[in-house]
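User
Take a look at the entry that follows and flag anything odd:
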Amino acid sequence: MEKKETILIVDDTPNNLRILSQILSDAGYIVRPCPSGKLALKAARAQIPSLILLDIVMPEMDGYEVCKILKTDTKTENIPILFISALDDLSNKMKAFEVGGLDYITKPFHAGEVLARIKTHLELQRVKEELTDNFNQMELEFVKARQTQELLMSRKFPSIPEVDVDIRYRSMTKVGGDYYDFFYEDGHLGILIADVSGHGAAASLIVSIVKIVFYYQKNNMLNPSLLLQNMNEAFYGNIGKEFVTATYLLIDLKKQKITVANAAHPPLLLLREGSKEIIQILPRGTLLGIKPDAKFQSLEIDFQPKDRLLLYTDGLIEAPNESNEMYDEERLADFLRKNRNLKPSELSEKLMKEIIDWSGGELKLEDDIMIITIDNKINN
């Protein structure tokens, strides 16, 4: 059986209460008449009505005051309130809306008009509650997705004597599309950084696929170009119209060499001790998941004492400010030069703060941002 809506009528004139009660009862509503503002407050709190018809001119407590009190009480703040009054001037109507009323019905009222306005506002309230329920459910799902994503990237990064590594991540939504993973075995450290197209739950789902595919590349961890090639083959046809950019960095800690393969991802940046030059390491490679037979180049370079490496996603350099200027590669290079003496953790934290400030606050970020800073701790 469909639940009947309850209408609380507040009016100090008995005849108005009688007429409105009859109109609403005949229309199938449950009616609760109330002759004063103080009694109306008690009645509304005792049993929340579906809607309130509220007179303005009443002794002791007028309708404006009743409405204000109801709107400041978390228990009653969402009740739709429609004012009914013989006061027809604009100032009274404006005040009614200012204190939280949704509509204003002028006396003498007509049954058809009263019923039409009540029906409209009850429907709007139903839609609002439905949207709120859906939003709350989505919030819950996002929390679950966020927890899942945090688990995906929760593997503790090992303490490695030869390098100092710091990883920072900010998502523009509750779940994002940036991802990192690593491999460490027998003097070899491999770090994957990836960026899934899109944002939100869809991107986080593909992040799960990235993790699984990377996990099954155990036999290719020492061959960056082959690793990306095999990941591309796994993605093709399995991630819809989305795509993934990625860089895989392999550090041979014994030979002090780095090998890099890139899949249309921003370049790995290298800053050498005593040099102001920022070296961009960008091997040829295409987006992952677009072409089934894509090939990837790898580049090898010496990993010298006190070298600093920076991996990042494009949300860093493409972050716009209020003037729609991107942070860009030049500002990033200048930042790295100026902050060469900071530890990786200090640099990552300061850089993330700079990007957030540049964007006008964390809520203004238009893309996910990941920063991985790696220092070579070997001095000779």
Remarks:
- Residues 56 and 63 are 4 Å apart (CA to CA).
- The first helix runs from residue 14 to 26.
- The first strand starts at residue 6 and ends at 10.
